[in-house]
């Protein structure tokens, strides 16, 4: 039971944590690219606003997921679990010893780890401060090049630093004939080529191409027009149905493929029924990541399943509850704190000027 619970915790927490930022999952990136391309006059979606929207969702869903898995595999005795001064069982002592031993094996921070941590923090700060919304960001320092400074700018700049910063403190080698400095970057191009997940780049790029094909061919607009009668329904029902559909589809199709198919359909639908597109697109994007039921639904699910501790029925029982929690929390968010953040109760002017 412990192995099953821990395996599912690792798989689910990696997925839930990815919801928090635009760069956390490929589906978030695809949504941001599609939205900013279709609505170039909109400034609502950026790293800061997405983080403020999703951090409560992530925290609530993480807590509920822990409670669900705890109850499902071990039972949930609140008084016993949080009792102070109780004696640890042999299993708890053994678990604590394993964790302590593994932690000690890590040793102290190395020079490379410290530099990587600093660069990561700098990149996160640049993402947050590029265009926070409530104050001018650093992108406003370049008025002649408005629109050119994006989240990709910070990522490429800090990524380039890995090829420049030395992996070890410089040392000087002196011989009778010459003096030389021993220099090696944190990452070499050969290492980058070997470790870079090119398959993900091709998958996401293919998703963009598929979305563009749906737009240019008129397929997405045709489907949206056929769905226009849904406008007579309350908006929360439309959002709920969209969330349930993508949550179901993403269990058998990849997340990028699912979001790529539905975004070009739902955006014209929102325009046709005169609803803020974000009201439908944000919850749909978030629910696309709720692939918790099957090993094939998500790479993290497949990885933990490959270790042999889980059966498919274990993932189905655990994932069904988390799927339900996820959809309900997203519906709560989009109906409460997301409304003033993105002015979801009004139809924005930027929705009238779209790029096909």
TrEMBL record:
Family annotation (Pfam families): Na_sulph_symp (PF00939)
Signal peptide positions (record): none
Alphabetical list of InterPro entries matching this protein: Na/sul_symport_CS (IPR031312), SLC13A/DASS (IPR001898)
An example molecular function term from Gene Ontology annotations: sodium:sulfate symporter activity
Major localisation: membrane
Similarity comment: Belongs to the SLC13A/DASS transporter (TC 2.A.47) family. NADC subfamily.
Assigned GO CC terms: plasma membrane
Source taxon at top rank: Eukaryota
Keyword Ion transport (UniProt): yes
Protein name: Solute carrier family 13 member 1
Transmembrane segments: 48-73, 109-128, 148-168, 235-266, 278-297, 318-339
PANTHER family to which the protein is assigned, alphabetical: SOLUTE CARRIER FAMILY 13 MEMBER, SOLUTE CARRIER FAMILY 13 MEMBER 1
Cellular localization per UniProt: Membrane
Keywords, comma-separated and alphabetical: Ion transport, Membrane, Sodium, Sodium transport, Transmembrane, Transmembrane helix, Transport
UniProt keyword annotation of Ribonucleoprotein present: no
Membrane topology: Multi-pass membrane protein
